[in-house]
Each structure stands twice: as C-alpha cells, then as structure tokens.
Amino acid sequence: MEISLIQEFVILAEVGNYMTAADSLYISQPTLSRHIKKIEDDLGFPLFNRNSRKVELNQAGKLFLPYAKQILSIEQEYTNMFQNLKTEDQYTLNIGTVPMMAPYGITNIFQKFRRTYPDISLIITEMKHHEMILALEENRCDFVFMREISRAEDEFVRIPIKMDCLVAVLPKKHPLANEEKIHLEQLKNEKMLLPVKDSELYKLCVQSCREAGFEPKVSFTSRGTETAIDLVSKQMGVALLMKLPCQFVDAQNRVALVEIEPQIRASVSAAYRPNDKPGTAAKKFLGILQKLTK
After folding, report:
1. Strand, coil or helix: what is 145?
2. Looking at the record's lineage, which domain of life comes first (predicted)?
3. Confidence band, pLDDT 50/70/90 cuts, at residue 199
C-alpha cells in the first residue's frame, strides 16, 4: 500500500468530505474515490459510511486510522533522518594526512578553508600511507594528503602540494657535516636512526641503503622527527629523514642536513577519488586546493 494513499485516507477521515479532501490534496474527487476504494480492497474492508452529506469512518476505519497516522509519522521520521544524514555528509569532510603537515603547508590549507567556510566541519586524521589508500578506496576519506616516492597505478586524482627529498641528518661535528651532498654508501658504518618499521619512509631508507650496497645498522626507530634530531644532536647516530620536516623541527640548527646523491625525491599531494557529482563540501575544498596550489 502506497504511503500517499494512506495520507489521502487520513485527510478524508479528518475533513469528512470528498470535495474538501480532494481540494486540499490537489487531486480530483473521482481520483480520491478510486484511491480510497483501492485501500479498502487491499484491506478487505470498507472504511467509511457514506451518505449524501458527509463521509464518516465506520468501525474498521476507526480501527485503521491510528495505524495510518503512525505509518505517516514513521515515514516522516525516516525521511527527516535521511535528509539530515545527506545534509551532514554534504557539510562534513573526512581527511587523512601524513603526520607532519605544517612543513608541507597542509595546515595552511585547512586554515584557509575553515576561515572561508566556517559551517563545514573538517575531520582530520593522521594515517599511514596504506591506511590512506584503503580509506579512499572504501570512501571513508574525501581527501588524503600523501607522500609518495613514485606515482602508484591507481584511479585517484592528485594535486601536487610540495616536493621533498631524503637527507642525511648528521651531528654538527660529523666529518661529513659540511659536505653539500654525499653518497649513501659513505654512511655504511654509521649507526642509523630511522622512522618506525611499519612506515613507508623506513622501507624507503632501508631499500635505498641496500641499493647503495650495504645493510643499514639500525640502532633506533622513532615516529617523531623531533626525537630523531635530538638523538643525532647528542651524537647517538645519524638519521635518514625528509628535508622539509627536519628544517621545520630544527629551527635552532642543532644538526647538519646533507642531501643524498643521487637525490631521492618524494612528492606530497592531495589525492581524491574521481567523482562526477562531488558533495557541496568536497567541491568547495577542491576549489580552495586548486586556488592555493596554482
């Protein structure tokens, strides 16, 4: 039984007149009569006592009326619920990002967006690289800010944000500290301070050392650039890290940053799924991204 027919039944029951009910429903009186007859046929009972002056509910109609009103009430509730959910989706963005956002200007993007569109909520979560890929694939993130050494073969659209490169982080008094560039094999006898093992950056560092002909002597792993730099400044070893986060963290120049040759570069970009009909919030965020990255 269609919801619209139940609504017509309730209105007719309330006004008690076919013409008045049909006018309020913007349908013809014969159409209303056919619809009421269909409800009665579906239920197997007549619902009204009809006379020339007034239409009144019979016993079956009086029993059905509270259920009809309840059906309409439930229909209105779930309609409102889904409308609210749609509105919430349109005005909320879920964003995944690399842990070190500030050195790449990502926090500036968030700030600009929030100032421009204060009514749109940003839910920002730091993620590992594989977590960001999965979040995009499963539509749990609208955008992600990722760092990649090489472009993966996937369907995602990317907007370049910054370029970065791997550097050797050395104590100030290290023999190689004053060099402009060094080869990785020059560090083969050093104790290495690297990112945590489950990170893409750790894999990159180990792979690069192996390609340079040696297995790195890893003495410490850390999630924090600040911790690694502090240990290097205390001559606990040397680190391999990305240049821009190191420059951001080490404002006091406690360590020396020496570029690796050949250069190992990484691209930081905003990635999102191609969508012919992006939501309101996604359109606006994309507009800010494109404006700030021209």
Report:
1. strand
2. Bacteria
3. confident
- Give, in order, the Cα–Cα distances in Å from 270 to each of 78, 132, 133, 273: 36, 11, 12, 11
Q: Comparing C-alpha atoms, which of 52, 63, 65, 88 is closest to residue 13?
A: 65
pLDDT of 90 = 60
Q: Please name which of 148, 155, 170 lies closest in space to residue 265, comparing C-alpha atoms.
A: 148
Tell me how far apart the alpha carbons of residues 116 and 285 are, in angstroms, rounded to a whole number: 10
The number of residues making up the chain comes to 294
Q: Is the pTM value of this prediction over 0.70? A: no
Query: What structural domains does the chain harbor?
Result: 3-85 (1.10.10.10), 90-161+268-292 (3.40.190.10), 165-264 (3.40.190.10)
Nearest to 9 by CA among 18, 53, 52, 44: 18
Q: How far apart are CA 219 and CA 236, in angstroms?
A: 9
Segment 127-170, tens digit of pLDDT: 988 899 999 999 899 999 999 987 777 889 999 999 999 999 99
271 phi and psi angles, rounded to 5 deg: -120, 145
Q: Compute the distance between CA of residue 138 and CA of residue 44 in angstroms, rounded to an integer.
A: 48
CA distance 220 to 269: 29
Cα 221 to its chain centre, rounded Å, is 29
What is the rounded CA–CA span in Å between residue 210 and residue 216? 8
